[in-house]
Design goal:
8-stranded parallel beta sheet
């Protein structure tokens, strides 16, 4: 299994990175990205520490740890610069906190994240067809999420992505151990999004494709 959207106590998660990774390793995960919430106030504090612990854990455990960041509630005008800064500081995977219907995310965030070339647009809510087509052209992956609340628009995202040929990845957006997905639950989330029953393997393949593109081949 692969999860490219998780949180530790460096933002609003419950676990230190080492425990997060160990618990997922014990569940049979092969790769996990740590993508704590950041904006301009804490980017330079969080990302270097995630980079350091990821490097250490990659020498000690079987699961591949990808240092990342999730730009969260950043005004769209600032997103391109922060995507660049996150990468400069060592984030190998940049996630945008998309326009979930659960929160008042600023309108235009989805488009700004896609145009900035982020890797994943997380829980993009009622994303527009033209934004999905833009994601295809920019090579940005769209997320099907296991996160309660954010998952309410999975069906909408899956439908538009299927029609446009956008690549989907399945992530937990986990903040605590109770959020981790077993394979059985992950398959149910995939089917609940209205995707064919065999789509789970395709979503895993998409995650592997993304990982290979950022230098973490499986």
């Amino acid at each position: 299994m692969i999860d490219l959207h998780t949180h530790t106590f460096f933002s609003d998660g419950a676990l230190v990175p080492s425990e997060l990774i160990r618990r997922l390793e014990a569940m049979g995960y092969r790769a996990v990205a740590i993508t704590d919430h950041v904006d301009s106030s804490n980017l330079d504090h969080v990302v270097p520490r995630i980079v350091r612990v990821a490097e250490e854990l990659n020498h000690a455990q079987s699961v591949k740890v990808i240092p990342g960041a999730e730009l969260t509630h950043v005004p769209p005008v600032f997103i391109p610069a922060l995507v660049r800064r996150a990468r400069e500081m060592g984030a190998r995977l940049v996630v945008i906190h998309g326009e979930t219907i659960l929160e008042p995310v600023a309108s235009g965030t989805n488009r700004a994240g896609i145009e900035a070339g982020a890797d994943i647009l997380a829980h993009p809510g009622l994303i527009r067809p033209e934004e999905v087509k833009l994601a295809v052209s920019k090579g940005v992956f769209l997320e099907i999420t296991g996160r309660r609340g954010h998952s309410m628009t999975n069906g909408h995202v899956a439908k538009l992505a299927t029609e446009a040929g956008a690549r989907l990845v399945l992530n937990s957006d986990s903040h605590a151990p109770g959020d981790f997905m077993t394979e059985e639950f992950a398959r149910k989330v995939t089917q609940g999004a209205g995707l064919p029953s065999d789509s789970y393997q395709q979503l895993l393949s998409n995650s592997r494709l993304l990982l290979g593109g950022i230098g973490f081949p499986l």
